[in-house]
Structures
1.
Amino acid sequence: MGAATGWRLAARGAQVVCFDRHSPPHSLGSSHGESRITRTAYFEGPWYVPLLQETFPLWRELEADTGTELLTLTGALMIGSPSAEAVTGALAAAADYGLDVRLLKADEVRRTYPAHIVGNRDVAVLDAQAGFVRPEAAVDAMIGRIEALGGEIRRGVAVSAVNHRPDGVEVVSEEARETFDAVVIAAGPWMHELVDWLPLTVERQVLVWFALAKNGASPLTPGRFPVFIRQADGIGDVYGFPTLDGASVKIARHHAGDATDPQHVRREVSDGELDPLRRYVRTRLRGVTQRVIRTVTCMYTNTPDGHFAIGLHPEDARVTVISACSGHGFKFAPVIGDIAADLACEGHTARDISHFSLTRFLEPEG
Ligand SMILES: Cc1cc2nc3c(=O)[nH]c(=O)nc-3n(C[C@H](O)[C@H](O)[C@H](O)COP(=O)(O)OP(=O)(O)OC[C@H]3O[C@@H](n4cnc5c(N)ncnc54)[C@H](O)[C@@H]3O)c2cc1C
C-alpha cells in the first residue's frame, strides 16, 4: 500500500519519500508469495466493484511503464453450495453492476474444469474479469516508478513516531527527524506501532505449494484453470491458483491462522496445518498430489468487520492512515494508492470510501 501510494503520488508530481523498515519487496510482511487473486464480482460487498474496475487499467499502466508482467487474467470460480456467501455475494455484485459472470451447475463445472471434484449440489460462479497479480513484481514495479519519477526510497529505516507539529508532520526515524507537508501511514502488520487506536489484529497465514501429478498434460495451467475460492464444508474457505511453474499449484486456507506478533512470526509450518490442505487436494482436486514442495508464511492485518480502514487521521488531516488488508487488499493496491494520494494532496477523494471509515471502530464520546 505504501509503494502504491508513493507511485500514485509521484505520478501526479508530488515529491515523495518512502520509509521502510525492511527492503521491499520482501517476505516479512503481507505482500509476498508469488500470486494474489483479483476479481470483480466481489462477494465481500458490491461497493468494492467500482474500485476494482479502476484497478485493471492501472495494473496495465504499471506494466507498460515498467515492462513487467503483473496481471494475468484467468477468470475466477467461486465454488460452493447455492447458498454459499461467495456464490450469492458474487451474483449480487454482478447483478448490481451488470458484470460478466456465469452460474455453472455441477455438471458444467465437471465438464469445463475437470480438476475440480464437486458434489451434485455444488455450483460455481465464473467471474470473467479476474485472475491474479504478482505481488513481489508489483511492489518492485511501483518502487521503480517512484524512483524514475524522482522519489526517494529509504530502505532499512524504521519510523518510530509521526508527530503532529504546527509547521508540518514530523517523521522520526533512527536516522533523523524530518518534517513533511503530509504523511501516509501504511505499516501493514506493524500498524499498531504508529497508530495504536485502530483495533487491528495480526493473523499468521500459511501458503502451500503441492506437486502436480506427472500423468500427461495438466489441466491446471493459467489458460485452463481459473483462480478459485471454494467455501467447503468442514475446512472453511480454500483458494488456489493455476500452476505458474508447470510443476506445482499454490493452495491456502483463508482466515485459518493464529494471532501473531509481526516481529516474532513462527515460520515453520506444522503437519497439523498441512493436513486439512492435504485432505482438500485428495478429495477436491484432480491432478494434484499430496506432496508439499514449498510453504510460506505471511500475515493478515484484520479489522473487526473485515473491511479496510482508510481515511484521514481524526486529529490531523495532514495524515492519512491505510490498513487495506483483512486478507483481501492486494488487488486494490493501485486504486488505494490513488485514494491515499487524493487524501494526502486534496484532503478528500471522489471515490466512495464510506465503508472504510477509520472512526467506525471508535466509541462515540460522551
Ligand atoms: C497469505 C496471504 C494471502 C493473500 N491473498 C490475497 C489475495 O489473493 N488477493 C488480495 O487481494 N489480497 C490478498 N492478501 C492481502 C494482501 O496481500 C494485503 O492486503 C497487502 O499485502 C497488504 O499490504 P500492506 O502494504 O498493508 O502490508 P505489507 O506488505 O506488510 O507492508 C507494510 C510495510 O510497512 C513496512 N513498515 C512497517 N512498520 C514500519 C515502520 N515503523 N517504519 C518503516 N516501515 C515500516 C514493512 O516493512 C512493510 O514493507 C493476502 C495476504 C496474505 C498474507
2.
Amino acid sequence: MTDIVNVETRSRMMSNIRSKNTSPELLIRKALHARGFRFRVHAKNLPGTPDLVLPKYKAAIFIHGCFWHGHRCRYFKPPQTRQEFWLEKIGKNQARDELQIAALRAQRWRVLTIWECAVRSMKKQRTPLLIDQIVYWLLQGSALAQIDETHLESACSQTVSVTTSKV
Ligand SMILES: [Zn+2]
C-alpha cells in the first residue's frame, strides 16, 4: 500500500497534530486553573519552551504527543510507508527532548512530562486522577517525573483496591 499523501503534506498534517494549544493541553490548563494554580504557557525563555511553567513551584511541564515524541504505547503507530524517515525524525525529537530536560534541570527546574495517552485515558474514564497526580507532583513530587497511561492505570487500580478494602 502506498502512502496517499506526500511527505510534505504528511509533515504538515503531523505538525498540526503537534501544534500549540492542543486539546490535551487545554484540558490540563483548565483543570489546573480551576484548582487555583497559576502558570505561564509556552515559556519561550526556557529550554524547550515548556507548555506550562509554574515559577512558584519551580516546575516546568511538557504535554507530549505520543507519536511525535515516540512514546512506546498503543498510540504510537509509525506510518506504514517511509518508516525510516519518520523513525529518524522521531528519534531526533526524543534526543532534543532529553537535551532540553537536561538544560532545565541544570537551571534547577523540576520537570514533569505528561503523555497524551494519560490525558486520553483520563477522558475515557472520566476521572480527575491525572489532575490529582499533577497537583501531587507540583506540591511534593520529585525533580524529574512523567505520567503516562500505565502510570495512571496503576494509580487507578490502587484507588480501587483501597476503596474495596474499606467495604
Ligand atoms: Zn503514550
3.
Amino acid sequence: MKIGIIGMPQSGKTTTFSLLTNVKLGAGNKTNIAMGKIPDYRIDALSKLYNPKKTTHAVIEFVDLPGYSNGQGNNGRDFLGILADVDALILVIRAFKSDTVPAVNGIQPFGDFNQIQQELQIADWSLLETRLERMAKQRNKDSSVEAELEVLNKCREILEQDLPLRQLDLTQDEERLIRGYDFLTKKPLIVAVNLDEEQMRTDSYPEKNQLEQDLLEKNIPCIAISGQLEAEINELDENDAVLFMEELGIQEPGIARVARTVYRHLGLISFFTVGEDEVRAWTVREGNTAPEAAGKIHSDIERGFIRAEVVGYEELMEYGSIQKLKEKGLFRLEGKDYIVRDGDVMSFRFNV
Ligand SMILES: Nc1nc2c(ncn2[C@@H]2O[C@H](COP(=O)(O)OP(=O)(O)OP(=O)(O)O)[C@@H](O)[C@H]2O)c(=O)[nH]1
Ligand SMILES: [Mg+2]
C-alpha cells in the first residue's frame, strides 16, 4: 500500500510526510519515501494489557512528492510515473498565512483544489487520448478492443464534463478492462487542509464553505491539520501535549485522522495478535478470510490453516484475558470461510 502526498509548492507536503512517518526532514523539493504508523487506540490498549516486549502498529508507505509548479516542468514523466504507482492520494492544501513562506497563488484553498484537480484530469486526458489513437489503428484488426474502447469512451465523457474519473460508475468487468491504466483521478483522494494556529482556534479559513461543500458532493474526505502546530505537539511530552490540544479544542492531532482515514478509505481493516513477546496489528482488506489473514503472518500458516481462534477486541478489553472469555463462551473457533472483522484478536492453528 503506497500513498502519494501531493499539492501546490510550499503547502506543507513534506511537513505532513514527516508527521506521518516520523522521519525528520528539512524543507526540500524532492521525493521522499518512508513507512508511517497507523495510530490506533486499540493497539495502545492491548499493549497496556499484555505489556509485551514489542508493540507493532499497522503501517502504510507514504511518498512525498515535489510541488506542482503551475504546469512548469514538475509535472513531467517522473512525477506522473511515481503517481501512477500509488494506491491513493493525500492532497495537502495550504490555508495557513505566513509572511516568510510565499504562496504561489495567494491563499485560496478552493482555487488550489480546483487547479490540482484540473492538472490530474489533464494527465488522465492525455493518457486516454494517446490510448484511443492507438486503438483506432488496431480496431479493424482486433475486435477484442471493442469492449475496452467503450469504457474508455465513457471515461472521456466524464473528463469532458470536467469531472474526475472517480465519479464514473463502472461494473466490475469494466473496471478490470481499465485497471492497467492507473488513471490518477480514479485513485481514492483525501484532502488535508493545512491551517495556522488562529484558523485552528477559530475553525475558519478562506473559501472554507466552498471547499467543504464541493468535497462533500464529491465524497472526498476533508481533514483539518496544522503542520506547524502538530510538529510542536510532537516535541512535547504526553501530558503537555494533551493540555496543549485541550487548549486548542482538539482531541488528537489532525494527522492521526489523516492516517486513519486513508486506511479506512482504502477498505483496510486491522486484526491483532497478542502475547508477552509482541502485540501487533496486521492489515487485511475488508472481506478477507481467516486463511488470508493468516497468510499475512506467514504463507505456511495460510497453507496449513486448520482453524482460527478469535475473540473480539471489545470483549477482550472488557474481561481482561482470553481465559476469561473462554469461561464466558466468548472464545470462537472459526474455519476457512470466516470473514475477518476489524478488531478481531486472532491466533491460528495450522500444520505444515
Ligand atoms: N506558518 C506555517 N508554516 C508552515 C506550516 N506548515 C508548513 N509550514 C512551513 O512552510 C514551508 C514549506 O513547508 P513544506 O512542508 O516543506 O512544504 P512542501 O509542500 O513540502 O514544499 P515543496 O516541497 O517545496 O513544494 C516550511 O518552511 C514549513 O516550515 C504551517 O502550518 N504554518
Ligand atoms: Mg516538500
4.
Amino acid sequence: MTAPAIRPVLMIGMREDAVVESSGGALTITQPFGRITVRGLPPGVAAVLRELPGRLVGEDEPADRLVASGGTSQEVALLYLVLSRLRPILVHAVEPLLRVVPIARDAVYQPRDLPPDDIVRLSRFALVRRSGEGLVLESPLSRHKVTLTEAAMPLLAALGRGVMVKEAPEALSHLVAAGVAGAGDTEDTDPALRAWDFHDLLFHARSRWGRQEGPFGATFRFLGELPPEPVVKPLPEGPALPLFRPSLEEVAAADPPFTTVLESRRSVREYGAPPTVRQLGELLYRAARVREVFGPTPGMPYEASRRPYPGGGAVHELELYLTVGRCEGLALGAYYYDPLGHRLVTLPARQEDTRAMLAMASTATGGLATPDVLVTITSRFQRKSWKYSGLAYAATLKNVGVLYQTLYLVATAMGLAPCALGSGDADLAARAFGLDWVRESSVGDFLIGGAPREAASGS
Ligand SMILES: Cc1cc2nc3c(=O)[nH]c(=O)nc-3n(C[C@H](O)[C@H](O)[C@H](O)COP(=O)(O)O)c2cc1C
C-alpha cells in the first residue's frame, strides 16, 4: 500500500447522542448507556465540557482552552479525570479517515504506538456495512465501532493482506485499539477464537446485552407504523383435513407418570410401524395447538395466544409443516398445521421437493432414519421483530428448543419415535411449502416415527 497523501489529525469528541446539561452546580451527561453526574466542577472545566458534544476538537484542545482561559494545572488534571470517566461516550477520530465510537458502557480505549515494522491485518470477525449514509466497520470482539470515510478505502482494501504500521501509524494504531484489526496471528492460533464462526460470534454479540448499542429488547419499534403480523397465519389455500382431538382427561389417565416419560425419552431414528393420522392428530393437539387467543391488553398491544409450549412474549411466531413419507391415513405430501382449527391443509408441493425434504432429514440422522413424518418448524419473523429488537431471532431459536422438548415428551408418552434435527434446508423448505424465505422460513426440523423399531419387534 502506498501511504495516504493526507496528514491525519487526531481529534476527540462525544457521541452525537450525548447531551450535556448543567444545573445547580452539577454537570449531567446523558448518553445511551446511562447518565453521569459530576458535581462541584470549576466553571472553566464545566464550560470546556459543555462545548464538546456535536463536534470534534484536537486531542489537546480542551486542556489548551482551559489553560488559555486561566485554568490551573489542578483544573487541567480534573478535566482529564472527568474525560476518563466519560470513556463510554468519547469519540476518537483520525481525521479525515475514521472515527472510533464506543458502543458499550465498559468500552476501554487505549491507542498506543505500534512497532513500525509490524504488519496489521483486518480481523476475520470484522465486517463493513452501510449505516445511514456512511460505512461502519465493526467486530463482535470490539466494544467500539469505526465509521469510515471514502478517504479510508485504500487503507481498508489493503488490510486484507496486511499493512506495515509505518505506512499509516495513526490510523492503524486506532484500528488496533478499536479491536477491528491486529498484528500477529492470535485469531488463527487461540483455540477459543478459532472455534467461532464469523456469523456465530456476531450473532452472539448482538443478541445479548453488553457489546451493542441497541435498541434492544421489547421496544415495539413498529407500533403505530405497521400492524403486527396476525396471531395465527392466514390459512393457505388447499383441502383441509380435520384432525383427531383427544380427550385430555383420557390422555392424562392413560399417560405414564411424568418422571417415567422424562427418564425414558430418547432420540429414536429407526422405526417399526408407521404412525397413524389419528396419532399425529393427538401429538399436535397435545404439543402445539392454540389453547386460547387473548389480548391486546395494557402493556401488550397485540393479540397473543397460549399453547402447550411456552413462547417469548406469548407472540408464538412458530408454524408447523408436515412432510409425510409414511403415515397411515395420510398421503405422501406436504401439509400446513392450522393450530387454531386443529387441522391439516394440503399444500401443492412438488413431489420432488417433498422427497428432497425427506432425504435431507434422513441425511441429518446420518442415514439412519427413513422418515415417516418430518415436522418442519418455520418462523414468521416479522411477528417477533415487531415487538423485539436485537434479540428477535435468538428468541425464536430458543422457542424452537422448547417446542422440540414438548414434541419429544408428548411423543415419548404416546410411544412414538421422536428425533430433533439440527440442520434443515431453509431454501428447500420455503420452496416446498410455498413461502417467502425472508418473511417465513424454516428454523427447525423434527422427525416423528411410528413405534421405535425395537418396541415393534418386542426387544
Ligand atoms: C437441537 C438438537 C439438534 C439435534 N440434531 C440432530 C440431528 O441433526 N440428527 C440426529 O440424528 N439427532 C439430532 N439430535 C438428537 C441428539 O443427537 C440427541 O438428543 C442426543 O444424541 C442425546 O440422545 P437422546 O436424545 O436419545 O437423549 C438433536 C437434538 C437436539 C436437541
